[in-house]
Amino acid sequence: MCGVLHQQTLAKPASFSGIGLHSGNKVSMTLLPAPPNSGIIFRRVDLDSRAEIPAQVGNVAETDRSTTLSRGNAKVQTVEHVLASLCGFGVTNAVIELDSSEPPVADGSARQFCKMIREAGIEAQAERVEPMQVTAPIEYTHNGTVISAFPHDGFKITCTSSDNGGRFTQFFSVELTPETWEIEIAHARTFCFYKEIEYLIKNGLIRGGSLENAIVIRDDAVLTAEPMRYREEFVRHKILDIIGDLSLVGAPLRGHIVAVKPGHAANCGLARRILQQARRPLVAAQSFSPPGDKPVKSTHSTHATSSERRNNSPTGLRADHADSAAPLPVPDGGQGDAD
After folding, report:
1. CA-CA 20 to 30 A from 245: which of 141, 142, 185, 284?
2. Could you tell me if 99 and 31 are in contact, meaning their C-beta atoms sit under 8 angstroms apart?
3. What CATH number is attached to the domain comprising 151?
4. Are residues 244 and 147 part of one domain?
5. What does each C-alpha distance from 90 to 5, 6, 22 come to in angstroms?
6. What is the pLDDT of residue 305?
7. Cβ count near 108 (within 10 Å)
8. In this structure, which long-range contacts are made by residues 290-298, counting pairs with CB atoms below 8 Å and at least 24 apart in sequence?
């Protein structure tokens, strides 16, 4: 989070087993400490290659109802909840080991992942971390979603969510700190609309979904295995997703995010543009430096190079880069979350 001055990792491993929301596969997940400048890395221990996928927006492969990362032939689906949990507590370096293609859904919120991080403990590292500062307004629109970023000294998210008919409209705004993350956002569960269930099943999604890990909205009724955890639980879960998706910029973010009807495609689109804005001073310095001279380092050029070093792959992304997989059409009446 914005208050973290030094990189942080976990003090010891922590594990949890369950099923994946969309795949329905049994999975064991272990959070592990990682050295400074590692970033967050997913490791598929079920593959012979033990493939590693850095959690960066350049590795986003799909954004239909969840965020999927891929590298080579390996992929990890529905990464946003565990990423939001690490980001929410300010953990900048960790390895997420999985023996399947998707983290366990647990109860559909980030509650279990917070518990894992609490059990593992958080350990400060000597190396400093440089936040990524939004320096000028940025806007990204996609299929009815408008999401913007504005300069701000902390990390604030203001969000409005609703279905296409304007029902279940909710609004929430929060200044993110480790405390507000765990109290105000982390317990909000994923949700979907009843009329979307057939569509989701036909498209190979929510195979592990149930009322134990999701809220279902049917007409004006809310179907849930327990009472609502927040009055604005739907929009708070949308904020949870935004935190996880924007963590793919690879550094603690400083800015005010304002979102209307957000989704994973737009969240990741905004992350790309924030990352591009942060890299502009470095690109400009390299462009205008005389031959043989080293470019003058700006506030963001230091971060850009450290981000590239951590992620070990290029981050030269175009502002107009579209998501690699556009969301499939859904029935009229709005889209739930089901992530």
Report:
1. 284
2. no
3. 3.30.1700.10
4. yes
5. 10, 10, 27
6. 39
7. 27
8. none
Task: Please report the pLDDT score of residue 297 as a whole number.
Answer: 44
Residues in the chain: 339
Instruction: Pull the structure tokens for residue 79.
Output: 């990464």
State both tokens at 332. 């009229």
Confirm whether 264 is a catalytic residue. yes
Q: What does the buried/exposed string (b/e) look like for 142-160 if buried means 16 or more CB atoms within 10 Å of the residue's CB?
A: beebebbbeebeebbbbbb
Report the number of secondary-structure helices (H) and strands (E) in the chain: 7, 19
Amino acid in position 259? A
Q: Among residues 212, 140, 209, 155, which one has the least CA distance to residue 185?
A: 155
User: Tell me, what's the pLDDT at 37?
Assistant: 97
Under the phi-then-psi rule, with left for phi > 0, alpha for psi from -120 to 50, and beta for the rest, what region is 100?
A: beta
Answering whether pTM is above 0.90, one says no
Catalytic entry in 264, 300, 303, 321: 264
The DSSP secondary-structure symbol of 109 reads: S
Low-confidence ranges of the chain (pLDDT < 50): 1-3, 293-334
**49 and 141 fall within a common domain:** no
**Two tokens at 28?**
């064991």
Q: Is 254 helix (H, G, I), strand (E, B) or coil?
A: strand
Q: What is the DSSP letter of 188?
A: P
DSSP 289-337: SPTTPPPPP-HHHHHHHHHHHHHTS-----TTPPPSSPPPP--TT----
Q: Which two tokens stand for residue 214?
A: 């999701």
DSSP track, 10-70: ESS-EEEEEE-TTT--EEEEEEEE--TT--EEEEETTSTT--EEE--GGGEEE-SSS-EEE
Whether residue 155 is found in the same domain as residue 246: yes
Predicted pLDDT of residue 162: 85
- In sequence order, the β-bridge partners of residue 197 are none
Same domain, 179 and 100: no
The residue range of the domain holding 46 is 6-128
